[in-house]
């Protein structure tokens, strides 16, 4: 096997990634920075209790902000902040209906919400339920 640039890695450890083309091949197989940024945005958007609850409510049906705010018991400004994050992540969209906006899940939001539901319904990955 070709000697790696990282002399502190034992040869036995490098052999385990030989099938990947060594350390260079492993690094080359990683998603690019733009893709990693999208994953980070997804996790950021789903890393708040209110945003998860908003996604779950919108999974049931599209709702106006006033109903979401009342259900969560939060201020208008706090709701606006959370809705903005979800919109910027591409998970929800708002449609004007007269004097208010009705929010619903995008196709991406439906996917994310379905993944959240799988976690809620099943055992926690890593055996934390044991």
Automatic annotation (TrEMBL):
Domain of life: Archaea
Keyword Secreted in annotation: no
CDD domains, sorted: HTH_ARSR
PROSITE patterns: HTH_ARSR_2
Keyword Transcription: yes
Record-linked InterPro entries: ArsR-like_HTH, HTH_ArsR_DNA-bd_dom, Metal_resp_trans_reg, WH-like_DNA-bd_sf, WH_DNA-bd_sf
Span of domain HTH arsR-type: 31-130
This protein's UniProt keywords: DNA-binding, Transcription, Transcription regulation
GO MF annotations, alphabetized: DNA binding; DNA-binding transcription factor activity
Database matches in Pfam families: HTH_5 (PF01022)
Signal peptide: none
UniProt name for this protein: Metalloregulator ArsR/SmtB family transcription factor
Source species of the chain: Methanogenium organophilum
Lineage, opening ranks: Archaea, Methanobacteriati, Methanobacteriota, Stenosarchaea group, Methanomicrobia
